[in-house]
Amino acid sequence: MRFAEALCRSGLGAIAEFKRRSPSAGDIRPDARVEEIVASYGTAGASAVSVLVDERFAGSLDDLRAARAVTDVPLLAKGFFSTADHLQAVREAGADAALLILRDLDDATAVALMADAERLGLDTLVEAHDAEELDRATALGAAVIGVNARDLGTFAIDRRAQLELVARAPRDRVIVAESAIHSRAQAAAAELAGADAVLVGTSLMRAADPGGKLRELVARPLVKVCGLTRQEDVDAAVEAGADLVGFVFAEGSPRRAPAVLDVPETTLSVSVHVGTAEDAGADLVQLYPDDGSTVRGREAVLLRDGDEVARVLDLPWRGTDPDHWRNAAGVDGRVMLAGGLGPENVGAAIEAVRPWAVDASSSLETEPGIKDQARVRAYVEAAHSRRLDGGCKGAEAAARPAPERKR
């Protein structure tokens, strides 16, 4: 399978990286063995594997050859390539694709290298860091465009700027979000911005079990704890492993929050509104219709910068529906399942519906707006135990043919 094609398969793809050190972080795992770690990436479901072949990362072409010997997944050679001979060398060592960094290449050189790669049977990942480079990659016809959160000149990380670039990238290309992804929520943020895949290196290489960490990053469903009103409950939900935390701003709700409270960058915040979305400073907005009689209508949409990115399938306000799960299972696209979920039934709900995310609130309380932290932990643990390893609703819809390079 070609590199670009592998990134277009169902669900959020992951390029898992092997490196022993980096100029920005220093030594990461200096004694790492390709044979062990790359093999674990393959069994953990990596769409592709990136191998640093540059000595500044303690890498070499021998690492690429060793990776080729232990995995059949597409291999991306990463280095600072500027000549056809560089591409020839990585191709002979087993690479299926090569990195081209626009910061270091003018347009004429980039075009020539893309043509050389095509002649050699290599795909290319054309990397951009800012808007100008993204426009260049698009104009050059790059089929796979990487958007790096790290400025290679200063090593500074700006994930917000990265996500803005991912969101404006052309949808007829394969878009890869690179660098600074350490949690499921950060990977999901890239997915919701429009990334087809994420490239993850340091967080995997620092993990005791790199393959297990990779599986954790791409597994679904995401887990949301909603109706939070106290900082101590936010902290407990995050510590338990919740990926999203929700704050209700609906008039008349007994769980109305004073504000979006402090949430670490490894977790996504969600503000919940009825009728009209307001800017409460959250990463995402969950918007319910106003049914005119109760606190909210039944079903909601999840919005990112005003664009719908998922459907929220809920129960009626303080109501029931015996067919809720069965009906939800028949809905295409990303689904966040809500309504009556708790530690006792979230596992069964995941098995029945295979949602992209699950959402619980009132079942985790001692009283409205006050969480029972033991139940929060039990709910998150129960949801984690039924993770679907990418096979959730919405994954099938995300699969698409690999684009051809624009000429």
What labels would you give this structure?
32% helix; elongated; 407 residues; alpha/beta; 15 helices; 2 domains; 8-stranded mixed beta barrel; 22% strand
Q: How big is the Rg?
A: 22 Å
Number of helices: 15
Global outline: elongated
Hey, roughly how much beta strand do the residues contain? Answer: 15-25%
CATH architecture of the largest domain: Alpha-Beta Barrel
CATH topology of the largest domain: TIM Barrel
Number of strands: 20
Describe this structure in words.
With 407 residues, the chain is of the alpha/beta class. It folds into two domains: 216 residues, TIM Barrel (Alpha-Beta Barrel); 163 residues, TIM Barrel. Helix content is 32%, strand content 22%. It has 15 helices and 20 strands. Strands 1-4-5-6-7-8-9-10 form an eight-stranded parallel barrel, surrounded by seven helices. It has an eight-stranded mixed barrel with strand order 11-12-13-14-15-16-17-18, surrounded by four helices. Helix 2 runs parallel beside helix 10, helix 4 packs parallel to helix 5 and helix 11 runs parallel beside helix 14. It starts with a helix and ends in a 9-residue tail after the last helix.
